[in-house]
Amino acid sequence: xxxxxxxxxxxxxxxxxxxxxxxxxxxxxxxxxxxxxxxxxxxxxxxxxxxxxxxxxxxxxxxxxxxxxxxxxxxxxxxxxxxxxxxxxxxxxxxxxxxxxxxxxxxxxxxxxxxxxxxxxxxxxxxxxxxxxxxxxxxxxxxxxxxxxxxxxxxxxxxxxxxxxxxxxxxxxxxxxxxxxxxxxxxxxxxxxxxxxxxxxxxxxxxxxxxxxxxxxxxxxxxxxxxxxxxxxxxxxxxxxxxxxxxxxxxxxxxxxxxxxxxxxxxxxxxxxxxxxxxxxxxxxxxxxxxxxxxxxxxxxxxxxxxxxxxxxxxxxxxxxxxxxxxxxxxxxxxxxx
Length: 338
Hints:
Blueprint (H helix, E strand, L loop, with lengths): L2 E4 L2 E8 L2 E8 L2 H14 L1 H8 L4 H11 L7 H14 L10 H14 L6 H20 L27 H12 L5 H12 L3 H5 L6 E2 L2 E4 L8 E4 L2 H10 L14 H10 L12 H12 L4 H8 L4 H4 L12 H4 L2 H12 L1
Antiparallel strand pairs: 1-2, 2-3, 4-5, 5-6
């Protein structure tokens, strides 16, 4: 028993795995036993987590069955979580510590022959946090995420790259000369509508209608319709005239397109090669005076913060920095005096 009678009163000495040990003296047995009950109640979640012996891989399987399988990138995310679990030695999920995770982060980002970038590891960290949080929300676990309070690695924000007009011509010429006839058409759709490559690549004929294209199975899981130039629409309809409404128009072409980008020797930002046409559309849209909210709808961003990455390209972006700087005010005052 934790409560024992002693010469100078009653001692409450609580020693349980997973609970900080505490020793406290009381004048009466009743006070000591009440303190024991309250202290154990406060630490109930810690005690329950110790009794949950399921491994990290076991939780991943439960998460995948109940939630993960419904995500657009479910297979990739499940595989990454399994690699993480195995690298950590597949620990008991409730007993994973922040220190163990930080040691793993140091290894993956600093010591590996091909270290992960900060952004890539932050993505993995967010997947793990989301898995624990989901299982807690549905009542499958009753303890907090052990990595939830660990800060993500700070990542320097970079400007999104885009192609010059000459580079656009070069890319399109290389695409047109490819034996894969789908590449030029997909590239044209991406540069004209800001589509992701996968969205354009998987188009069926029924998604073309009334001088517009409707994208399905998008990242946000919402369909969106974007107008296209009537002349180009007519050419596309001619290209796929032998297709039925449910037929895919294009062949899989992303790997070949990536090869074209590599052969072009263009110095594109790391990680932006497959999205460069989408970024180029968005950049020119804003530089030519387009509205940021309209761009959000065209690109299908669920969060305006994603679209705001292009805001600095607007012709009038922060123009007050010129007219309201101390030098500008001083110059204006000088002119007024003269």
